[in-house]
Amino acid sequence: MVQCLATNGCLPTLPDGTDGQCPVSSENIHKVHVLDSLDEIEGTWLEVRGLNCGVPGSNWEGGYDALPCRSDSWVYHAQQWWYHTSFCAPAEDRSCNEEGAVHLIGEPRLSDEEPGLLEVPYTNPPLQPQEERWYVLSRPDPDWIMYTYCGSTPVGEYAGLNVMTRVPEPSNAAMPAEVDAAFRQAAREFNFPYDDMCITDQSQCPRVTAEEDVQDWVDGL
């Protein structure tokens, strides 16, 4: 029923700028990190910092980056690339609830027309269509990355910004000083408050099952 309402334009939409604003513009896009291939980011990355944390009046009010146990995985399966993201419902102790993590799957592609743009259309979103434009803002270390996602659903536009890592024990405290300095420099270049980012605790999170979930999705097509 909700999808029917969305398809026919019957759902209320968010005011512009309420749910995050894309920090990449024509003036600063030349500063983004350009990926040559998705091979460079293959694997599972866990969030340690996020900007869309649901703070009232912040213009980043969706709270997506404050969800517990957020992960991003880039999986090559069945001769194509897949994007998998998982997260848990909000909990006071920032852990996963008893129902476990939920996940979304997309079919990512590097743009042939705009260097630095990674397009992520989702295949199983709650409301269709859901599409995102991704930009890597900084990658000072192979296992640390800062990116922004700028997307839309039938109820409006949204954006988020994350610091992710694929080190074995991910935490904000584990971030090397030179990586932190590079991310702070990127925050200045793309004009967002680095110290306003919320911290994600991954210590109580379940194992990410990206490969299994992608295989199940492909097998069900």
Question: Would you mind describing this structure in some detail?
Answer:
With 221 residues, the protein is of the alpha+beta class. The chain has one domain (24-219): Beta Barrel (Lipocalin), CATH 2.40.128. 13% of the residues lie in helices and 30% in strands. The chain has helices spanning 2-7, 177-189, 210-219; strands at 43-50, 71-77, 80-87, 102-106, 109-110, 118-121, 131-141, 144-153, 156-165, 198-199. Strands 1, 2, 3, 4, 5, 6, 7, 8, 9 and 10 form a 10-stranded antiparallel β-sheet that branches. A hairpin with a 7-residue loop joins strand 5 and strand 6.
Compact description:
This protein is of the alpha+beta class and 221 residues long.
Features:
221 residues, alpha+beta, Lipocalin
N-to-C order of helices and strands: HEEEEEEEEEHEH
CATH superfamily: Calycin beta-barrel core domain
Rg over C-alpha atoms, rounded to the nearest angstrom: 17 Å
Beta-strand content bin: 25-35%
Largest sheet: 10 strands, antiparallel
Task: Specify the overall morphology.
Answer: globular
Number of helices: 3
